[in-house]
Amino acid sequence: MSRIKEKFTELNARNQKALISYIMTGYPNEKSTLATVRGLVKGGVDIIELGFPFSDPLADGPVIQNASTISLEKGTKISKFFNIVKKIRKETDIPLVLMTYTNILYHKGFSKFITDAKKAGIDGFILPDMSIEESKEYLKATKNYADTIFLISPNTNKTRIDKIAKASSGFLYLVAVFGTTGVKTGIKKYTLDAIKKVKKQTKGKIPVGIGFGVSTPEDVKKYIKAGADAVIVGSAYLKLIEKTPEKQLESKISSFTKQLKKETIL
Amino acid sequence: MKYPKNGKFGEFGGKFIPETLVPAVEELEENYLKFKNNKEFKKELDYYLKVYAGRPTPLYYAKNLSEKLGGARIYLKREDLLHGGAHKINNTLGQALLAKKMKKKRIIAETGAGQHGVATAMACAALGMKAEVYMGYKDTIRQKLNVFRMNLLGSQVHPVKSGSKTLKDAINEAIRDWITNVETTYYLLGSAVGPHPYPVMVRDFQSVIGNEIKSQMKKINRTPDNVIACVGGGSNAIGTFYPLVDTNAEIIGVEAAGHGIKSNKHSATLSAGSKGVLHGMMTYLLQDDEGQITETHSISAGLDYPGVGPEHSYFKDTKRVKYHAATDTEVIDAFLMLTRTEGIIPALESAHAIAEAIKVAKKGKKSESIVVTLSGRGDKDVEEVQNYLNKNVKD
Q: Which of A51, B45, B244, B344 is deepest in the core (most CB within 10 A)?
């Protein structure tokens, strides 16, 4: 069983939903990434999503775009990223998901990249520009090896939800809003409807996580109440990292994580 | 016209897009297929192309230039004479009309040099719509008159300050807007790039260029031995080439070699790039060894793009089309030569094709014909050329 699947089973047994936290690796530097991860683990996060920067992050809003640019400027490379993952793995057994764009994997070769990532300690992948139509090679390279987390949008129809769910493992990533990451719009009715629609359509075969614009304990509470199995918080973390001095990073991240995590305990 | 299954040209093209856009591109494809052979739609588009844009454009025998070079005969396909001064209007009229049929209220577009933005603003004004145009911040400075033109035409320009602040970033931002406003917005893409069905749709709307060349050459009892066009994203080139790929013509696409291919300051994607995924498509890209897209350079803002239309990638790999590149210096020389021999000021983009034509003509026989697509006029570039000449006074 994959670490992600195990995590959801374990949470289920404890009557909890999952808190998934996203951070951009190497933003603003390696040391702060490691401190942030420690804070997340201390705060009780369930799954960590590690962003790897891409020069053209077209699904991301200004906060993650900016973090990508800075991370790249600071010299984040694939090999350096894998080294950071290995360091994290020495400290924790928490599920780690890599979020980046298709070209990064394609360029190295799906098989090579995925093997190296898995060896470093990555459990699954999220590629926001990978559609199921184009995923043949990607799925072949990950099969029975790493989880493939595909995205679903509130405008995805039922037939397509079935197809996406079939290609996905670990969890499904439901995009909360029409928009890029980190855009705050308040909680929309169409989002709550989408959670219900996707949950109903997938019949509990795979957990449904919700992300994009989820930033406060109140958001977490409402989405969990609407039936989400997991909430994904990203840009809010990056904003916190941006304004926190490195020395306080671990404790600030930990206390913010605790506030979010509290709302996932039923 | 052939329609690529799953939007693939061999392994190139496809739909590498965020899930939110899937219903939008499906809706677009459905409507495009519905209207492209619809008599009324075609009639309406033909009407606008003829009486609004100025089609057909002449095929001009550049006698002075040809005789000066002493080789093959050079014919210029005068897309520079179109309304707005470039081939872009062929596509914007087609797509704006389609958007209107689809009852889309809001039009967005990206632009590099501003030619597509202006052509979008014109088509939208003519059809009673308004456009919002994303343009790299650097390009808004380089081409500030085009920004003003778009404003005059009733469109709004959003300067893009992310990334390299040029065309690729304008496309990123337009896609982000589309994701956000997917239910109301039509994205009017300007080149033969992006997710399916854009590359094939833009090709079809631009194929009027190649189709006219075919019949105009036939009228003068000639067949083109060489066909040449410049390639950035590659819309004028694919429109020129596609109707002629099943002839015996040698076809050459010309990219921007900037300061030279080895300098790393160029935009010669097909000449120096490698395969990858950007802006919804699999195609050749300029990227580093980690798969990060690299910054490009060209004297012409319209060719300053690290990707290329997927069908060009296909024609490169199948060797049906040769892709060469012209340096900034060669381009300026060609610009000056055409201006002085024929009294035609070409766009710097188009001057890349002229530079190649000069090389090919010199080697050609007098009985041979070269057709060059002059994709746009150079009024927008005279300041750039002046600056270049002031900096590089040679003789």
A: A51
Q: For A251, what's the count of Cα atoms within 13 Å in the CB-facing half-sphere?
A: 3
Inter-chain residue contact B18 with A151, CB threshold 8 Å: yes
Query: A69 and B162 in contact by Cβ < 8 A?
Result: yes
Angstrom distance (rounded) from CA B182 to CA B106: 10
Residue B105 pLDDT class (50, 70, 90 cuts)? confident
Q: Which residue has the higher pLDDT, B15 or A184?
A: B15
Q: Which residue of the set A60, A123, A229, A263 is catalytic?
A: A60
Are the C-beta atoms of residues B351 and B327 closer than 8 Å to each other?
A: no
Set B88, B100, B104, B316: catalytic member: B88
Architecture of domain A3-261: Alpha-Beta Barrel (3.20)
Residues 123-142 of A with CB under 8 A from B: 128-131, 133-134
A 159-188 residues with CB below 8 A of B?
160, 164, 175, 178-180, 183
Q: What is the pLDDT of residue B143?
A: 87
pLDDT tens for B191-209 read 999 999 999 999 999 999 9
Residue of B nearest to A154 (CA): B20
Beta-carbon contacts of residue B298 (< 8 Å; ≥ 6 apart):
B232, B256, B258, B266, B267, B304, B328
Q: How many CB atoms lie within 10 A of CB A216?
A: 15
Average pLDDT for B239-249: 98
Q: How far apart are CA B169 and CA B135, in angstroms?
A: 8
Determine which of A79, A103, A161 to mutate to test the interface with B (most B C-beta atoms within 10 Å).
Answer: A103
Contact assessment for residue A95 and residue A47, using Cβ atoms and an 8 Å cutoff? yes
Name the amino acid, one letter, at B93. Answer: L
Catalytic status, residue A219: no
Q: Using CB atoms, which residue from A57, A59, A103 is nearest to B276?
A: A103
B86 DSSP assignment:
B
Interface with chain A: mutation pick from B6, B16, B19, highest number of A CBs within 10 Å = B19
pLDDT digits (tens, 9 = 90+) for A183-233: 877 899 999 999 999 999 999 999 999 999 999 999 999 999 999 999 999
The predicted-structure confidence for B339-363, as pLDDT tens digits, reads as follows 999 999 999 999 999 999 999 999 9
What is the distance between the alpha carbons of residues B83 and B248, in angstroms, rounded to a whole number? 32
Looking at beta carbons, which residues of chain B come within 8 Å of A57? 172
Q: How far is residue B205's CA from residue B82's CA, in Å, rounded to a whole number?
A: 15
Residue B289 backbone dihedrals phi, psi, to 5 degrees: -75, 5
Owner of token pair 């060469």:
B324
A10 catalytic per annotation: no
State the nearest Cα–Cα gap between A251 and chain B, in angstroms: 32
CA–CA dist B213, B226 (Å, integer): 12
**CA distances for A30 relative to A26, A87, A89, A246, B343, angstroms:** 5, 11, 15, 11, 60
Residues whose CB falls within 8 Å of the CB of residue B173, separated by 6 or more in sequence, listed in order: B110, B134, B158, B160, B162
Mean pLDDT of B65-80: 98
Number of neighbours of residue B78 by Cβ within 10 angstroms: 18
pLDDT at B394: 54
Q: Which residues pair with B9 in a beta bridge?
A: B12
C-alpha A13, offset from chain centre: 22
Q: Which residue shows structure tokens 């990073």? A: A249
- The Cα A149–Cα A127 span in angstroms is 8
B149: left (phi over 0), alpha (psi -120 to 50) or beta: alpha
B300 and B286 Cβ atoms separated by less than 8 Å = no
